Amino acid sequence: MNFDNVIVExxxxxxxxxxxxxxxxxxxxxxxxxxxxxxxxxxDQDDAVRVIVVTGGEKVFAAxxxxxxxxxxxxxxxxxxxRLAYRDQINKISKPVIAAVSGFxxxxxxxxxxxxxxxxxxxxxxxxxxxxxxxxxxxSGGTQRLTHLIGKHRAMELVLTGDIINAADAxxxxxxxxxxxxxxxxxxxxxxxxxxxxxxxLAIKAAKEAVLKSxxxxxxxxxxxxxxxxxxxxxxxxxxxxxxxxLEKRRPEYKGK
Length: 257
Prior knowledge:
This protein is an alpha/beta fold. It has two domains: about 5-195, 2-enoyl-CoA Hydratase, Chain A, domain 1 (Alpha-Beta Complex); about 200-245, Lyase 2-enoyl-coa Hydratase, Chain  A, domain 2 (Orthogonal Bundle). It has helices at about 30-45, 65-70, 80-90, 110-115, 140-150, 150-160, 165-175, 185-195, 200-215, 220-235, 235-245; strands at about 5-10, 15-20, 50-55, 95-100, 105, 120, 125-130, 165, 180. α1 runs parallel beside α3, α5 packs across α6 and α9 runs antiparallel to α10. The protein is globular and about 60 Å long. The two termini are about 30 Å apart.
C-alpha cells in the first residue's frame, strides 16, 4: 500500500502504520486522516494482518489538527465533514490497534491515541486537549474518551485549561498502559501486538467488542453481550483446538473458524 502521508510496513502478522508529515509535526490534515483511514481499513480486511500499530516515529506522534488548513473552514466545509467521517472509520476498526506514542499527542493526536485499544508511551510523550486555547473544543471524541479513561474531574481540568501532561502523569491517571524509553516504544508496542497476534482471531475480535461495549452500556446490557459472545465462541473450531492443545500441552493451531 502506497500513501503520501502514511507509511505501512508489516512484521509477520503485525502491521505498523507511521504518520508521515514530520515537517508539520504530523499535524492531522485532511489528506493525512484520509490516508490513515484508508490504510487501516485495508489492513482490517487483510487476513494476514492480526494487529495494527499506529505511530508517528520517535520525535512526535501527532501535534493536533492542521490549524493552517482549518483556519478558514466553516462547519459544513467538505474537508471538516470528510475528516470527521474518516475518523469515524478509524474508530470502527475491528482488529486490535496499539498506539506507540513519542513526543506530542495533542488535540486530534491525543484523540487518535485514545481511540486505539492500547497505548504504549515513551518517556518523552506529552498528552493534552488544548483546543480551548483556540476557542473550540475537541471534536473527535476528546471530551468523551478522556472522561471515560481518567474520570470527570481530571478530564474537566485538562479540557478547560488546555494543559499538557507528561508520560508519567498519563500513566498515573490511567491514560496509557505503560511508559518505556523512547528507543523502545515501537518495539514494546510490537511485542504486545505479537503476543495478541498468535491468539484466535475469533476470540480476539469478540473480546475487543465486549470491552468496547462496556464503555458504552449499562452493566447488565454489557454482561448480556459478553454472555452471548461467550456462547458463540463455544461453538467455534478454534475453541475446541485451544482446549485440546492445552490438554495435550502443545501450541494451538488456530484457523479462525
